[in-house]
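Students often ask why we bother encoding 3D structure as a string. The short answer is that it lets us treat folding as translation between two languages. Here is a chain of 334 residues written in the first language.
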Amino acid sequence: MLATRVIQGHGVHVEGVNFFTGFCVEGHTHAIRNRKHEKPKRNNALWVAEQLGIKLHIIDISEDYKDIVLNPRHGYGQNLNPCLDCKIFMVGKALELGLIDDLDFDFVITGEVIGQRPKSQRRETMPVIARESGANDRLLRPLSALHLPPTLPEREGWVNREQLFGFHGRNRKPQMALAEKFGFSDYAQPAGGCCFLTDETYSNKLRDLWDARDSRDYQLDDIMLLKIGRHIRPKPHFKLIIGREEGENRFLAGYRKRFTHLSVTDHPGPLALIDGNLDTTDTQLAARIVARYSQGRDADKVLVTVSSASGVSQDIEVVPMAPHQLEPSWHVGS
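And here it is in the second language, the structure alphabet:
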């Protein structure tokens, strides 16, 4: 928001680019869950574009992005976040959209601030992003420009370097002050990330998926389901994805024709998907775990319906698993 408003102040026409990778936090779990929020649920990219009065291009890069996640040239951050490769890739895609696809744009801007992120926003990585994305000196960071060499837009006089900024470090107070000056009172959390790959729990779930399948690969549905529910792997060859609330149960219900699924029949409780293959003993175990998370957890017996992806169902009566019987190692991601 700030970078765009700064450049708009120079009389430059700006359009936004929002990339969909599949790992976004906003727009998925926030919309699925029933948690009450003071702010209305919204797509922040669309909302920001409306506040700025700009056109927004929403680009699905989820398939091309797989190689960035699986084979980052510059490695991962603290978890499975390929932040530097990610930034290079997205700037390159924006450049391709604006210049190579003949939309008649002259340069790319980002809201990067030197020192704000430990992986991708360091002084020594800024030129790497510019060079390897192909943008070179057509990449302008209006908020940190005074700490960087002049770019083409500055040298050509398209923007006035003296009216750009020299923000640096993790302190967001200067940016928040600028937001107030511009009249922005409502904006997304200025700190923290919006990518699940920066999250330790999520990254552990993704590693578990690769280990279980003996393959470092994924499909879009795989990474969407990793965002939802409790993931419990009582045996190496299968895990349960158990809804934690009504919103997650509704989301998981959309996968009933792809996975064996379990639900408690005689008490309110979660819907659970089975990722893997079950034998008779496994079915009893899975049903007991699901019953543990139902409102029948203290009952002597609970009725659980087990349904195959093809729609064939059977009812089994089980004793809900006691909390102490759930092995800590079964909880994927923890």
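Translate back mentally: The beta strands are 16-20, 56-60, 108-109, 139-140, 230-235, 238-242, 260-264, 271-276, 302-307, 313-318. Keep this in mind for the problem set.
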